[in-house]
Design brief:
Helix content of chain B: over 70%
Oligomer: heterodimer
Number of domains of chain B: 1
Largest interface: A-B, 51 and 49 residues
Number of helices of chain B: 2
Largest sheet of chain B: none
Structural class of chain A: mainly alpha
Distance between the termini of chain A: 148 Å
Number of strands of chain A: 4
Order of helices and strands of chain B: HH
Number of strands of chain B: 0
Helix content of chain A: 55-70%
Number of helices of chain A: 11
Radius of gyration of chain B: 38 Å
Strand order of the largest sheet of chain A: 1-2
Structural class of chain B: mainly alpha
Strand content of chain B: under 5%
């Protein structure tokens, strides 16, 4: 009897489990028809609204593109009128701009030269100044862009001229100077290793390279005289004699003439200035 | 006692069955075809939304470019006036 009761109870539980709908277990996942209809209507409205906006935006964007093209055409036409007013066309203006840029690049390169190299390039500076004046005389110089460029180039030329004028062949020693420091100055050699050059050129004036005095006036060599030779890296007396006297065996002649700056004939320093004896 | 228990079990079974039928059978749900249609509509709405965003971005860019071109035109017109006055026309 007890077993029969238990069986009925188990059977009842099984029936309940069979009948309890999935919706009670997973109840929140399945959509009802009413909800479906609401969601469908909302989605359709979203799509309709977006489609309408697409049409509006597409038309607006097309209008904007058209306006931009019209303005660009006006810009191009105005430029053509400007070019005509200065007697040229776009290609002519481009060529003029390239000329100015070329002068600018060359001036920059000259500004970077050492004083000595700049002195050698003095003619080039004059040529550039002449070219700039010629370009300035053109009608194209009336364009604002070109006026600005020309003004900048003239400022660079003025700076270069000032630099050229400032390059002296004399230097007055001030307190705290030493040959290395003087040679390093941008308006002297811009290279401290050329201190020996100052020493050699002023050998009558400087007895000890480590001892110079305020107010002492030193000669700064800018160009070599015919009877002078500037020692370069890798030089030796035989090589120099071969080069300047035509015979390496005559190296002793050079040594004899420069005994005051050559302590050891096998030891030469770059930037030493040697006097070349007459054959 | 056993008889009362049987009656209780029977009543409980009938009640659960009724509740089950009410919760499942009586509430209607969309069929597979309707759900597919909803998904397609959602996808179309999303695609349209993306297109709107893309067009709005393009619109903003075009407006900026238009303003830039208008300023450029004004500058060129000013330049023309200056150049004409410089060359004496």
């Amino acid at each position: 009897m007890k077993i029969k009761g238990t069986m009925i109870l188990l059977l009842t539980v099984a029936v309940i489990l069979l009948l309890v709908p999935g919706s009670l277990v997973f109840g929140q996942q399945k959509m009802k028809l009413d909800e479906y209809k609401v969601q469908l209507a909302e989605t359709q409205k979203q799509e309709t609204d977006a489609t309408a906006k697409i049409a509006t935006l597409t038309a607006e964007n097309e209008g904007l593109k058209k306006q931009i093209n019209e303005i660009q055409a006006k810009i191009d036409a105005t430029w053509a009128e400007i070019y005509a007013a200065v007697g040229t066309d776009k290609a002519g203006v481009d060529a003029y701009r390239a000329d100015l840029n070329d002068i600018g690049a060359k001036l920059d390169a000259l500004m970077a030269l050492s004083p000595e190299e700049l002195l050698k390039s003095k003619d080039e500076v004059a040529d550039l100044e002449k070219r700039l004046q010629e370009l300035k005389a053109s009608k194209i110089a009336n364009l604002t862009e070109m006026q600005d460029k020309i003004a900048a180039l003239e400022a660079n030329l003025a700076a270069l001229s000032t630099k050229l004028e400032g390059i002296n062949d004399k230097y007055t020693v001030i307190k705290g100077d030493y040959l290395w420091k003087i040679a390093k100055k941008p308006d002297i050699y811009n290279d401290p290793y050329q201190w020996i050059r100052i020493f050699c050129v002023n050998r009558d004036n400087i007895k000890n390279a480590d001892l110079i005095y305020p107010e002492q006036v030193l000669t700064i060599q800018r160009t070599l005289a015919k009877n002078e030779y500037l020692v370069r890296k890798g030089d030796d007396l035989k090589k120099i004699a071969g080069s300047v006297l035509g015979d390496p065996a005559k190296w002793t002649k050079i040594y004899e003439s420069n005994k005051d700056v050559i302590s050891n004939p096998k030891l030469l320093y770059p930037w030493q200035v040697l006097s070349v004896p007459k054959e | 006692m056993v008889k009362r228990f049987r009656s209780f079990v029977l009543l409980l079974t009938v009640c659960m069955f009724a509740v089950g039928v009410m919760l499942t059978g009586c509430s209607r749900t969309p069929n597979e075809k309707q759900m597919k249609a909803l998904e397609e509509t959602k996808a179309a709405a999303t695609a349209a939304g993306d297109k709107v965003a893309q067009l709005e971005k393009e619109n903003a860019e075009l407006k900026a470019k238009l303003a830039e071109k208008q300023a450029e035109l004004k500058n060129v017109q000013d330049e023309k006036a200056k150049v004409l006055s410089r060359v004496g026309k």
